[in-house]
Amino acid sequence: MIPTVRDVIDLPVMQAGAPEVVSAEHLDRPVRWVHVSDMPDLSGLLQGGELVLTTGSALRDAPREYLDRMGRAGAVGVVVELGTRVDSLPDTVGPLAQSLGIPLVLLHRETKFVEVTEAVHRLIVADQYEELAFAHRAHQTFTDLSMRRASLADIVRAAADLVTESVVLEDLSHQVLAVSPQGEPTAAVLTDWQHRSRAMAEPWATTAVGPRSEEWGRLIIPHAPAAPAKAKMVLERAAQALALHRMAERGRTGLEHQAQSGLIDDVLGDRIADDREADARAFALGLRTSGPYLPVTVRVSAPLDRLDPVAVQRRNLRILDAVVHSVKSLGHSAICSIRRDGEVGLVLAVSTRRGVTAEANLTRIAEGLREAIGRGGDTDKVVVAIGTSAGAFADAVHGLREAAHVADVAMSMSGAARPFVRASDVRLRGLLALLHDDPRVLTFAETELKTLLIHDADHGENDMAVLRGYLELAGNKSALSKRLHMSRPALYSRLASIQRRLGVDLDDGESMTSLHVALLILDTHHGATRSPTG
Which residues contact 477 (CB under 8 A, 6 or more apart)? Predict the structure, then answer.
């Protein structure tokens, strides 16, 4: 950094001159240059910021006039080399310089001014070179980030690393899109963020992000930076990189979604070790600050055209927008992310209503999600799966794995669609869904039902549907007769035929269990092959 008057006094070449500071006013003024002269009036030669070195002849003759002219010319201080001369300065010089606010230093040993000038100018040039090198490094850093289309978080992190200050990127509603703390916890940086950001009562360094009249965010150092000029330059370069990023990403995903998805990925990837940091980032993105939080997976059936990646991406974004709009319109808050094709994971903070049970509230949310997605015409089946509630945001994020598993299973389930499903609703199907990739499980199912599958294929019959109904109704033939609209004698004959082909006793409890499990395995396997993930 540029040297001050105090820094110059501390130089070895100055200390060798036995300096005496007779006026210590404003010693922290920066020294822009050093000027050597014994002229009584330098007002036409100085530009401001110079440290004047003199032998003091003009100061002896007219101290007040000399010092007053120095002050008006912008000199930051005066150094007088007395050396071995017997004539000294008047005793009033020190108090006079103090009254005028000018630093005054007397050197009691002979000193070569050229050595002082070289030492100070070397510091100044080194500082200017450091500024240029830093500016080049900042330019190179953000250019590289723009070229490789780095994320918002990467750009903000680079800015924070360059200035060694905490940096926050927020949108126009004061929601935090990215944060990179330096030397302090994220939770401390983001405490009561929206209120503090709106009030702006603190000496923050800020830079608008986006073209003039089209600004979409702000980069903020939430305190007075140690090096304001460097901080301003870095924030401006980072803002340019963020604007380029926004232009490149426009039409792909929204900034808020990127920030929310990045947060969920950071938690699942164990890149956030402190739950308080995860909470602070979630709250800054608009999640309600009080739990409990519910992990929810919204899964839709596969699109008709899965070969067009652009169409698939747009469909996923429509589903995400429908989920976000539905949650907000019902008065709740959530952190949402597209987890894979046809699947949106969200951590939901439910706003409770007086007189409304939790179950009724969840039903209304699920029905709202299904209706909002259905309006887009992107699917004929929507599953809303809810995991175990958690008191902390990070715990709920990890619960998304359970919710996604429940959604996988529910997609393969037949029957009337439920508003939402939990793990308790899938039970045995859930276990079989975990095992559906095991070839031994599928071999078991095929072995159990092989003869019936072949018969149905060869004769165009549907004995499998009869068997399925029989097992679902736990062997209640009367109920099955009504379901199939079939007379009892005809049903008994059909069941006897199925029993002969399978070679089992359909009234035996273990046989019924084995056949039912085999049917569930086939259902799960077929559902998995038809799922959005292939």
Answer: 470, 488, 491, 492, 495
* Pair 11, 117: CB distance under 8 Å: no
User: Given the structure tokens 């000199």, which residue do they identify?
Assistant: 75
One-letter identity of residue 484: L
Given a cut of 50, the residues of the chain with pLDDT beneath it are 251-252, 528-534
Q: 322-333: b or e for each residue (b if 16 or more CB lie within 10 Å)?
A: bbbebbeeeebb
Distance CA 298, CA 321 (A): 12
| Residue 48 near residue 37, CB atoms below 8 Å | no
Question: Considering just the CA atoms, what is the radius of gyration of the chain in Å?
Answer: 38
Tokens of 303: 């699109």
Q: How far apart (Å, rounded) are the C-alpha atoms in residues 477 and 489?
A: 10
For residue 323, the one-letter residue type is V
Rounded to two decimals, what is the model's pTM? 0.54
* Amino acid identity, position 360: A
Within 13 Å, how many C-alpha atoms sit on residue 439's CB side? 0
CA angle 424, 425, 429 (to 5 degrees): 100
Q: What is the pLDDT of residues 243-284, one digit of tens each?
A: 888 776 654 456 778 889 999 999 999 888 788 899 999 999
Looking at residue 367, its amino acid is E
pLDDT tens digits, one per residue of 286-331: 899 887 999 999 999 876 556 667 678 888 888 998 899 899 888 8
